[in-house]
Amino acid sequence: MIIKESITIYSTMEKVWNTFTDLTRWTDWNTVMSDIVCNDQCLVNGKDIKCCFRPFLFPINVKIKIQEIIPFNRIVWSAQKKGLFAFHEFFFQEVEKGVLVTSKETFSGILTSAGGFLFPEKRMRSLTKTFLKDLKKASEA
Question: I need a labelling partner for 17 at 20 to 30 A (CA). Which of 92, 115, 121, 132 fits?
Fold first, then answer.
C-alpha cells in the first residue's frame, strides 16, 4: 500500500524545514504523534525517534529510524512493528509563494496483505493529511 499526499505551505523553506526537523517543537504542532522521545533536539541521520500514534482505537508505540536527510529537500525514515514495515519519504520543493511538501509512505507486511481489514488505507491517509495540515498551520504561524 502506498499513501501519497501533498500540501502547499505559504511560508519560507527555512521555516517549514526548521518546523519539521525541530523535535523540541513537535508536541506544539504535531497531533498525529505523541510521547516523542529522542536524544537529539533535531532529526539526525541514522538516529531513532520513539513515539506513539493512534491509527485505531488503541495506541501503537513505534521506533522510527531516520534513514536519510538532505537539507531543504528530503527526509526518509522507516519503522517496523509486528507484521508491518513502513518506509516514509518527505519531499520539500520551493514553489511560488511557498513550499510544496509531499509525503509518500509505503507499507508492506502481513497486516497490509489482509485487504485493508487490519490496516485500513482510509485511516492511514487521514493521519497523513492531518500531519501535513498540522505542519502547514505551524509553519504559517
Answer: 121
Q: Which of these, 50, 45, 72, lies nearest to 61 by C-alpha position?
A: 50
Q: Domains of the chain, with CATH numbers?
A: 2-140 (3.30.530.20)
Closest by CA position to 88, among listed 104, 72, 99: 104
Looking at residue 122, its pLDDT comes to 83
The pLDDT tens digits for 27-59 are 999 999 989 888 889 999 999 999 998 776 678
Per DSSP, 47 falls in state -
Please give the model's pTM, rounded to 2 decimal places. 0.90
CB count within 10 Å of CB 136 equals: 21
Q: Do the beta carbons of residue 35 and residue 52 sit within 8 Å?
A: yes
